[in-house]
Write a structure and sequence with these properties.
The chain is an alpha/beta fold and 826 residues long. It contains 25 helices and 33 strands.
């Protein structure tokens, strides 16, 4: 195997010629440079800009001009402007200002020419309305870059741009930033850097890369979810790319020369090894040019893992030989960077040609537009690649066939149509495809069947990452709180409607045993004496066990002397995943509700009353009059876009399955055990179990407590740890084997998030600061049993109807759900 050093070498002279080989050297690209840049008519400056005549411009190649610079004590050697084709004020050249250090002036000129050609391709692929340009400043060394006077450099650039009379625009690039562009913009108007907005060129680029990478995975790998994406380089662009891919359900590995930068939530840091050794399906280079050397390409080809290369890096291959080494056999596809990393120039096109809409747009609406464009162009490119045998080995030749017609509208002028597209307009958008979201959709279809409704779900209906997934959720009227007991009775009537309309059996009557210590006080699930009292008050049939031996005789238990119990024969379990799917199907069948899975919300804004704007991580855009927010553990992440937040805590709850003696398979009840907590042992004392549900002799056992520790209680899903905690697993193992007869090996163990309020009551209300938003959150692990009633109440609240059940205890304005900053403002 080649050494790391040899893998990383070779990005010198071979890199200089790669793009020229791929594109061919144009016959006098500028023709007569002075004529094409209108220099033959003299250089006109703004009144506050020092004069400069054409003799100051030195033509150093068919497409590059050298610009005079102020003395910086030798720290800055030269400044170049590269233009790949004739430009004018009607179709100006556009490219960033790069500050770098090159071994020779010839290298700097060559890179300027090559980068301007690459920019020309980006612009022509999408018809941005610009031509290709690039500015390159050559520093004495990279270590000297911080010492260069940026103001002097910007003054030199301003003189050149003024002289070019609006035929060249620039923006940020390597080692130039927004502060530099702000100063440059004070000197001349030929700057495109989102200076009057919060739109970020790095994010634009990242969204473009993700749009292209995800679409390539769909076409080449059958989808992106669960596929392995390796992001090499986690600077400003690479970090955003990694976060977005992770949010879309990809398995993301990150590598950076600075390992700390590759520590990105939801991603695996593989910087401890050479990047080409990290397993991946899709390689996403977001680093400096020439990262894929011939030796690296050979290793990737031999490993057979790489299926596609698509990223942000300009010229990722160090040589044409490296490119052919990897893609020459046709089993690896390269999506050229001119297509995938065009996000910044696409945003520039909107800024230049649709300035008013650009300035009024939400940032993520621009990013969504960019993502949609790169996705669609990637589809076109790969269709051409796959339709012609051997064309995947000639990516640049295929790329030349997917250019847009320059006589058409610049792509930036299409932004308004995209934002206001009729296909994205809805009366109500429901965010979340778990219990609350599907139930809300179901009842909106019943109460207002003529409304156009969309349901957005980040994963699948009742996704495993949330709290609605699985085959078993308890239903019971056995509560210490009369409010919830009555609520369950109403919900059961509605569950029967769902079963009748769907033709599915969703509820299974198992009977439920509350047992254990009677002196626990009221816990999050009530208590044995409290439940018995309410059952008697409401005349709900039940049995009371005043001695542990009576319970042991009826079920395969080892209850402790002193334990008592109360049994509700009519309680049971709900098939939770199937129930969510049934309610969603009914809404689609009855009222044509649109379901969008694998569609996570990236942004939610309400710029004016009744105008809800939702942007998704996959580039989809939705507008509606109202929104139902049923996002569970992700509620505050979405509310943050509205500058709102609730006092919610996320609890990591453990549950798993255990094998049992087949002869006892049908003798286990559904149960809940109450014991006093032992904080020092992290034992909260509350355990539950379900009987065998299917053919296997397996029971489900879990806990209904959460240690007061940051590993188990957090406020952001980015901090959530999916791996079950060994100490908690042992507590469950020990409990179930000590308290139940015939329990064998543990089959599995999981950790799922509960969203909890401090008073253990839900939130079901309109958002006080935004009447367009109705939300459900804080299910506290007990909400599923009420699903159809909660959905009905959400629909009623959204439609402005009187609630069919008292929801005052679920107010979003109650003190205990106000986050401290909201209290302080009040």
């Amino acid at each position: 195997m080649a050494s790391s050093a040899s893998m990383m070498m070779g990005a010198g002279s071979t890199l200089r010629g790669l793009l020229r080989k791929q594109l061919g050297t144009p016959a006098s690209v500028l023709g007569q440079v002075k004529r094409n840049l209108n220099l033959s008519q003299g250089l006109r400056m703004n009144e506050n800009t020092p004069s400069m005549d054409s003799s100051c411009f030195k033509i150093v190649s068919p497409s590059v001009l050298e610009i005079p610079i102020q003395d910086q004590q030798g720290l800055l050697k030269s400044l170049y402007v590269g233009v790949h084709a004739p430009v004018s004020s009607q179709r100006p050249g556009n490219g960033g200002l790069r500050l770098w250090s090159y071994d020779t002036e010839e290298d700097a000129v060559a890179e300027c020419a090559e980068l301007s050609r690459g920019m020309s391709l980006k612009h022509s692929i999408y018809n941005t309305g610009f031509g290709g340009a690039k500015l390159v400043a050559n520093a004495k060394s990279l270590t000297d870059v911080p010492s260069i006077c940026k103001q002097k450099l910007m003054e030199d650039v301003a003189k050149a741009l003024h002289s070019l009379q609006g035929s060249v625009y620039t923006g940020c690039d390597m080692n130039t930033n927004f502060d530099d562009m702000r100063y440059l913009n004070e000197l001349c108007p030929y700057v495109l850097a989102s200076l009057d907005s919060t739109i970020d060129a790095n994010r634009s680029t990242a969204h473009g890369v993700v749009g292209s990478a995800v679409e390539a995975a769909r076409i080449l790998l059958g989808g992106h979810k669960g596929k392995r994406f390796l992001v090499v380089g986690t600077g400003k662009v690479g970090t955003h790319v990694s976060e977005l891919l992770s949010s879309l359900g990809c398995r993301v590995s990150c590598h950076d020369v600075d390992p700390l930068r590759a520590d990105i939530p939801g991603c695996e840091n593989v910087s401890h090894q050479d990047w080409w050794l990290a397993p991946h399906d899709v390689l996403v280079p977001c680093c400096s040019s020439g990262i894929i050397t011939h030796a690296a390409a050979a290793h990737l080809r031999e490993s057979g893992e790489t299926k596609c290369v698509v990223g942000a890096t300009n010229i990722p291959f160090a040589s044409d030989e490296a490119l052919q080494e990897l893609v020459g056999r046709g089993d690896v596809v390269f999506v050229p960077d001119m297509l995938s990393s065009a996000g910044a120039v696409l945003a520039d096109s909107i800024e230049h040609f649709s300035k008013e809409d650009y300035e009024s747009a939400r940032d993520n609406e621009v990013y969504a537009f960019v993502q949609t464009l790169t996705r669609d162009k990637t589809t076109e490119y790969l269709d051409r690649t796959q339709s012609s045998q051997g064309s995947s080995a000639r990516p640049m030749a295929v790329l030349a066939t997917v250019h847009e017609d320059k006589s058409g509208l610049p792509v930036g002028k299409k932004f308004t149509t995209f934002v206001n597209g009729e296909e994205s307009q809805y009366d109500v958008v429901v965010v979340g495809g778990g219990m609350a979201g599907t139930a809300a959709s179901y009842y909106l279809s019943k109460l207002a069947p003529d409304l156009k409704v969309a349901v957005l779900e980040a994963g699948e209906i009742a996704d495993p990452s949330g709290s609605s997934y699985g085959e078993s959720r308890m239903y019971r009227r056995m509560y210490s709180d009369e409010y919830f007991s009555v609520m369950q009775s109403k919900a059961l009537d509605l569950w029967r409607d769902v079963e009748r309309e769907s033709g599915l059996s969703l509820l299974k009557e198992n009977g439920l045993l509350f047992y254990g210590e009677t002196d626990t006080g009221e816990t999050v699930e009530g208590s044995i004496p409290g439940a018995a009292e309410i059952m008697s008050k409401l005349n709900i049939p039940h049995e009371y066990f005043d001695h542990h031996e009576k319970m042991d005789a009826r079920w395969p238990m080892r209850s402790v002397p002193g334990y008592e119990g109360v049994y509700e024969a009519s309680a049971g379990s709900i098939n939770s995943s199937l129930a969510c799917r049934a309610m969603m199907d009914l809404a689609q069948d009855a009222a044509g509700h649109d379901l969008f899975t694998n569609t996570s919300v990236l942004d939610l804004g309400i710029p004016s009353p009744g105008d809800v704007r939702i942007t998704c991580a996959d580039g989809k855009l939705f507008r509606s009059n109202k929104v139902v927010l049923a996002a569970g553990a992700w509620t505050n992440s979405i509310l943050g876009h509205l500058d709102a937040e609730l006092d919610l805590e996320l609890w990591a709850m453990h549950w798993g399955h255990y094998r049992v003696d087949p002869e006892l398979k049908h003798k286990y009840p559904q149960w809940f055990c109450f014991r006093k907590e032992v904080p020092d042992l992290w034992d909260g004392g509350l355990y539950y179990g379900f009987p065998c549900e299917g053919d296997e002799s397996v029971i489900k056992v879990g806990i209904d407590f959460c240690p007061d520790h940051p590993e188990f209680r957090m406020r952001d899903m980015a901090d959530y740890v999916r791996r079950p905690n060994d100490k908690i697993v042992k507590l469950i193992d020990d409990f179930v084997r000590e308290n139940w007869v015939g329990v064998g090996e543990r089959v599995d163990m999981y950790s799922s998030p509960y969203t909890c309020t401090r008073d253990q009551y839900f939130v079901l209300d309109r958002l006080p600061s935004h009447e367009e938003v109705t939300l459900f959150t804080g299910g506290c692990g007990r909400a599923f049993k009420f699903a159809p009633l909660l959905g009905k109440l959400l629909a009623e609240k959204t439609l402005g109807m009187a609630p069919s059940h008292d929801i005052a205890p679920f107010s979003a304005a109650r003190e205990c759900v106000q986050w401290p900053k909201v209290k302080a403002m009040a």
